[in-house]
TrEMBL record:
Matching Pfam families: Beta-AFase-like_GH127_cat, DUF6805, Glyco_hydro127M
GO process terms (BP): carbohydrate metabolic process
Domain Non-reducing end beta-L-arabinofuranosidase-like GH127 middle positions: 430-522
Domain Glycoside hydrolase GH146 substrate-binding: 676-785
Residue span(s) of domain Non-reducing end beta-L-arabinofuranosidase-like GH127 catalytic: 9-420
InterPro entries tied to this protein: 6-hairpin_glycosidase_sf, Beta-AFase-like_GH127_cat, Beta-AFase-like_GH127_middle, GH146_SB_dom
PANTHER family in alphabetical order: PROLINE-TRNA LIGASE (DUF1680)
The protein's name: Acetyl-CoA carboxylase
Length: 882
């Protein structure tokens, strides 16, 4: 089986083409010179720019520097072939030249200064590597690099990708890239020879060092590079996986996936007889262990740890098998499905397919390509996601272009630089069509231009053939993938039903296709409901290869939460629906009847969910942008215990909100803080435990202005972290009154909330200025500022009106709270309450009182609870339907 390279393929699908164009524009808006900044510093060369890039590429604080530069080189190398515009190609090439020349120069200069470390190239000093080996590092040698080998893997892979990319394009740069990589491989070998304990080093994430070094060895055939590669093989882990042991729970997900890409690479490289001679007989025998480990790993991940989008992990980790509902809903749904993981799973998947021809790998590939990769890019500007929340109520959050550079931005630029690399494979006389996206592919040895026109809306793909040179073409045989998402298919050759044979998930056409002939295939995709294994009612929909997402509007669409090092993630809007409440008993078994296809001009497909309380339209997740969404919803029966629980949970959240007069929790040095008139001196923001904070240093301060309107008492609540217990600050209210605040160590949990009654005389026409001043070396970190109406929930029931939709109230007895009601057809009762957090029970069922509730003939007891959810009042509705 051979691959067909992207240089032969021109993408014409408008969505995918735009995604690729976005990527190329993004790459060309950056400069290799600037990425070389830190590399030159390390090599004692004068940097080419005044400063380097920031975000994860920074050097002054915790960083991953060099990682993005490596991805950038790989993306340039890939995009060069994907891009067809001559002018843009030239610019991509130029960035590769600069990068490679820069590394060559840095490598040479470093060797002059440190001959014993010849070959080393990096954006950080070697002390970072000493540190992961467990050596003592002096303060001045600290580099604050979290995962140095991970970053170096990206650099090595980037150089090798440029070498491969430019082999037939620009030999000089190609060879230079290989030379630098090879000398770097020598350095790694020398370092490994001195390594006392490789396991210590392997405990820190090291990306795909084994993969890149096996690749290097296959190019250089140097025994040293092979030895270096084996240092990064975790044979113990591979053995366990080869025995199909699921040792993944608790492990950092994206640390594991590249290890298996590397294991498979070892297996692949040594399929070649030329390389086998490097191995002992015992090593040859053991090769199958690497293959089995990669296959089993894939099975374990895909079967037990993967959502319908193809994504895996929560908070970057694998948890217990089949705990996907728990992970997305209970643990913390902000950070499911790191996008890096899907990028790497697709690498592994593609290689497994090439070795096994097992069709399920391509099914996974297609599903993940669409619903995790294409879905991760903002079509407007090409920026990319880190985590992809799977639950309901979330927004998509994308990286900023130049001051974040997350891992997922790195794998992201690679993903979008090779969008067509798995569209076709070639097997003997057959061209295998793997994916159905419009494109044109040149098959030079057959003198053929094959045009695939894929009408994804109508599920029809046509293939036509023309001659590249104008001369006669050599006919080809097509094999079209028969995806699992279609119920049936019909295939025609020149409008006549074609003869075919089904094999390995493909439709092998028996007759060749020649010039001006057309093949047409029509699919009949179906709608599918899927759920997680730990909760059959946590469900999502798929139509054909598309995972559907429910559109939930644009409330707070640009909000984000901090997570990890400088990472931002989507937020869940708690008031938006995360349940689908079925109002008919047969909904589940007949969901295909109730999911009604509708036409939405801007969407590929759309379904309206009928007989569901929440009015939701489902469209493909991948094209959902600028809108809050839900992928998995909790499917509940109307009035069931789970439906009532969901209502209760929302009401509890609402009543917290009802107490709030003004608040600030998002210390972002941006819109949120400036909206409160932020001013400061010697102060900074940061994030800790998933929350943002602000603090001031000695002699420093920060201040905000809040508008607070209340006739009654006003309380100020400040949130701190327990670690800061004992720290103090001076709080100045309206520049008049100073209070000393000391963080107490009371209560439970990570965060501590302290409340203070505000002197009403200080409320100046409804605004109040708070100044937080350091009275010691630094203030405690302030994680939240909230003005509250009260410290307890209201105990008054404020029923404004009972409304009857279609019908009327015929009699009311206010002394007994009895209402006589006549309902006409489709009529119902709505309860209007001043406090939305009040609970309304009808016939002992907690209901959503804002929706018309039909009632049968007879008496219906109603109980309404005040926001304290304790004080109650009984009512009686006597209903007659007419
Ligand atoms: Zn990532």
């Amino acid at each position: 089986m051979n691959t067909i390279k992207t240089k032969a393929i021109t993408i014409t699908d408008s969505y995918v083409k735009r995604a690729q164009d976005n990527l190329v524009q993004y790459l060309l808006s950056m400069k290799s010179e600037k990425f070389l900044f830190e590399v030159f510093k390390v090599a004692k060369l004068k940097p080419l720019t005044k400063e380097g890039y920031q975000g994860w590429e920074r050097s002054n604080q915790i960083n991953f520097r060099g990682h993005f530069f490596g991805h950038y080189m790989s993306a340039l190398a890939l995009a060069y072939h994907a891009e067809k515009d001559h002018y843009l190609k030239k610019q991509l090439l130029e960035q590769m030249r600069v990068a490679v020349a820069g590394f060559a120069q840095a490598q040479e200069n470093y060797a002059l200064h440190y001959p014993e470390s010849a070959g080393y190239i990096s954006a950080f000093r070697e002390s970072a590597l000493d540190e992961v080996e467990g050596k003592e590092i002096s303060a001045k040698d600290k580099e604050n690099v979290l995962v140095p080998w991970y970053n170096l893997h990206k650099i090595l892979a980037g150089l090798l990708d440029i070498h491969e990319s430019l082999k037939a394009i620009e030999i000089k740069t190609s060879q230079e890239a290989l030379k630098v990589a090879s000398q770097f491989g020598d350095y790694i070998y020398n370092r490994m020879m001195k390594l006392a304990d490789k396991n210590k080093m392997l405990q820190i994430e090291y990306g795909g060092m084994n993969d890149a070094l096996y690749h290097l060895f296959a190019l250089t055939k140097k025994k040293e590079h092979l030895i270096a590669a084996t240092y990064f093989d975790e044979d113990e882990l591979f053995k366990q996986l080869a025995k199909h042991e699921n040792i993944l729970p608790g492990k950092h997900a994206n640390t594991q996936i590249p290890k298996l890409i590397g294991a498979l690479k070892r297996y692949q490289v040594f399929q070649d007889d030329e390389f086998r001679s490097f191995l002992s007989d015992k090593e040859k025998e053991k090769l199958t262990v690497y293959f089995a480990a990669a296959k089993n790993f894939w099975d374990i991940v895909v079967q037990n740890h993967t959502y319908c989008t193809g994504g895996n992990s929560q908070s970057e980790h694998f948890h217990e098998p089949n705990s996907l509902y728990y992970d997305a809903e209970i643990r913390n749904g902000d950070c499911t499905c790191e996008t890096c993981n899907t990028h790497n799973m697709l690498k592994l998947t593609r290689n497994l397919y090439l070795l096994t021809k097992d069709a399920r790998y391509l099914d996974y590939y297609e599903r993940t390509y669409i619903n995790a990769i294409l879905a991760s890019q903002n079509p407007l500007d090409g920026m990319m996601m880190y985590f992809q929340p799977m639950g309901a109520g979330y927004n998509k959050v994308y990286n900023r272009p130049y001051d974040e550079f997350w891992c997922c931005t790195g794998t992201g630029v690679e993903s979008f630089a090779k969008l067509a690399d798995t569209y076709y494979f070639q097997e003997n006389e057959h061209i295998l069509v793997n994916l159905y996206f419009s494109n044109e592919v040149r098959i030079a040895n057959k003198n053929i231009q094959l045009v695939q026109n894929s009408d994804r809306k109508n599920n029809i793909a046509t293939f036509t053939i023309s001659s590249i040179s104008g001369d006669e073409v050599k006919p080809i045989y097509l094999a079209l993938r028969n995806p699992t998402w279609t119920a049936t298919f019909e295939v025609f050759r020149n409008e006549v039903k074609a003869d075919y044979e089904l094999k390995n998930g493909f439709i092998y056409l028996k007759q060749p296709v020649g010039e001006n002939e057309t093949i047409l295939i029509k699919f009949t995709p179906y709608l599918k409901m899927v759920s997680t294994k730990d909760n059959p009612n946590f469900i999502a929909f798929e139509y054909g290869p598309y995972v559907l997402a429910g559109g939930l509007g644009t409330k707070n669409i640009s909000a984000d939460n901090p997570n990890g090092i400088m990472v931002r993630v989507g937020t869940k809007e708690r008031l938006l629906p995360d349940t689908l409440t079925m109002t008919t008993a047969d909904w589940r078994e007949n969901f295909t009847k109730y999911m009604r296809p509708i036409e939405r001009e801007d969407k590929l497909i759309a379904f309206q969910a009928d007989h569901i309380d929440e009015q939701i339209i489902f469209t493909p997740y991948y094209e959902m942008h600028g809108e809050r969404y839900g992928i998995y919803f909790k499917l509940v029966n109307a009035d069931s215990e789970t439906a009532q629980e969901a209502i209760k949970k929302k009401k509890e959240w609402v009543r917290e909100q009802e107490l709030i007069l003004a608040e600030l929790h998002n210390f972002d040095e941006n819109n949120s803080e400036y909206a409160k008139n932020l001013a400061y001196n010697l102060s900074e923001v940061g994030a800790f435990w998933g929350k943002r904070y602000r603090k001031a240093f000695e002699n420093g301060w920060f201040s905000y202005e809040f508008s607070v309107h209340s006739k009654a008492n006003v309380y100020l609540q400040l949130d701190f972290h327990r670690e800061d217990a004992g720290k103090r600050l001076d709080l100045i209210l309206n520049e008049q009154e100073t209070q000393t605040i000391i963080v107490s160590d009371s209560g439970e949990g990570e965060f501590i909330s302290q409340q203070h009654l505000v002197n009403k005389a200080l409320l100046n026409e409804g605004t109040i200025k708070l100044t937080f001043k350091a009275s010691e070396r630094e203030t405690p970190r302030v994680f939240g500022i909230t003005f509250l109406k009260s410290l307890s929930f209201e105990n008054e029931i404020k029923l404004k009106q009972i409304e009857v939709t279609s019908g009327h109230i015929t009699h009311t007895d206010f002394s007994t709270n009895e209402y006589e009601i006549t309902l006409l057809q489709n009529g119902g009762v709505i309860f209007h309450l001043e406090n939305e957090s009040s609970l309304v029970y009808v016939d002992n069922i907690l209901i959503d009182e804002t929706k018309p509730r039909p009632l049968a003939d007879g008496s219906h007891p109603v109980t309404i609870y005040a926001p304290d959810h304790r004080t109650k009042q009984e009512y009686l509705l006597k209903v007659e339907n007419k």
